[in-house]
């Protein structure tokens, strides 16, 4: 399979993907490359959010490379923070990564829905946190958006290793302290449950969008096959009519010959 041809497919307007993919597969079959045709036909149509990410990778390459650079710097800062130093660098790196992502999002067309923009943001967050997701984003061939790793995504990284705090002197427990601590723990528990519910909701939305895109892909492929079959039937019917006309002419000639001219 020609990488340039595949790159071209994932850079096309979303509504042209299936038609151009199928045309490329048909051309490969015509050239005798059945394996290449099969591989091209198996290429999945991107979801809307994945298509937007592929688009910004092509149109805002410098800004996307800045996100990748911020991710590398953040990984170094995180390693330092986990070793017991550099907590401030981690927070600075997190803010730099957020800023780089915001810069890319500023270039997304205003016509895109809020849900699509949120999915694009989550995918860029995932690219910062996960090297595998980052490589997929930079390749510009995403077929579906990527969720940010862990609850809170990039924010969770910034909070993962706070700067060391000075030890405090033991304090004397005051009346009501235990109640306040229990209330704070309950509030934190409810907040985490809310984040988990939201993460599950977003995952369900992404699955539904992917299923909808796959179904649309199948529909478009079936419609293209139907159009091709209808054209073939039309051609065969014309051939049948022509054959019948030739049979009728031949029979008339035969009767004339039998009558002696």
In summary, what is this structure?
Helix 5 runs antiparallel to helix 6 (87-105) and helix 6 packs antiparallel against helix 7. The protein has 261 residues and is mainly α. The protein is built from ten helices and no strands.
C-alpha termini separation: 64 Å
Our estimate of the beta-strand percent is under 5%
Helices and strands, in order, run as HHHHHHHHHH
Helix content percent band: over 70%
**How many strands?**
0
Summarize the main sheet. none
Indicate the structural class.
mainly alpha
- How would you describe the shape? elongated
| SS field, number of helical segments | 10
Mean pLDDT: 79
Stretches with pLDDT under 50, minimum 5 residues = 156-167
Structure in words:
This protein starts with a helix and ends with a helix. The longest helix has 82 residues. The protein has ten helices and no strands. About 5% of the residues have low confidence. By secondary structure, it is an all-alpha fold.
Features:
261 residues; mainly alpha; 0% strand
What's the layout of helices and strands?
Elements: H1 3-10, H2 17-30, H3 34-41, H4 48-59, H5 61-82, H6 87-105, H7 114-129, H8 131-139, H9 154-158, H10 177-258
């Amino acid at each position: 399979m020609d990488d340039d041809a595949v790159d071209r497919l994932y850079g096309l307007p979303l509504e042209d993907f299936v038609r151009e993919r199928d045309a490329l597969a048909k051309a490969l079959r015509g050239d005798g490359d059945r394996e290449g045709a099969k591989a091209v036909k198996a290429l999945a149509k991107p979801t809307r959010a994945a298509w937007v990410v592929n688009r910004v990778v092509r149109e805002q390459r410098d800004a996307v490379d800045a996100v990748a650079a911020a991710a590398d710097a953040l990984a170094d800062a995180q390693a330092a923070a986990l070793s017991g130093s550099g907590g401030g660098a981690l927070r600075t790196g997190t803010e730099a990564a957020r800023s780089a992502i915001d810069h890319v999002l500023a270039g997304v067309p205003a016509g895109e829905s809020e849900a699509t923009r949120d999915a694009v943001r989550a995918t860029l967050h995932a690219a910062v946190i996960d090297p595998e997701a980052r490589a997929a984003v930079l390749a510009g061939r995403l077929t579906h958006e990527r969720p940010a790793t862990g609850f809170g995504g990039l924010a969770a990284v910034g909070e993962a290793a706070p700067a060391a705090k000075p030890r405090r002197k033991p304090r004397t427990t005051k009346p009501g302290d235990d109640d306040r601590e229990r209330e704070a723990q309950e509030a934190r528990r409810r907040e985490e449950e809310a984040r988990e519910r939201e993460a599950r909701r977003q995952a369900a939305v992404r699955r539904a969008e992917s299923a909808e895109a796959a179904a649309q892909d199948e529909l478009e492929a079936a419609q293209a096959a139907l159009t091709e079959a209808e054209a073939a039937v039309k051609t065969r019917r014309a051939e049948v009519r022509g054959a019948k006309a030739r049979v009728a002419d031949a029979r008339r000639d035969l009767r004339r010959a039998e009558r002696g001219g």
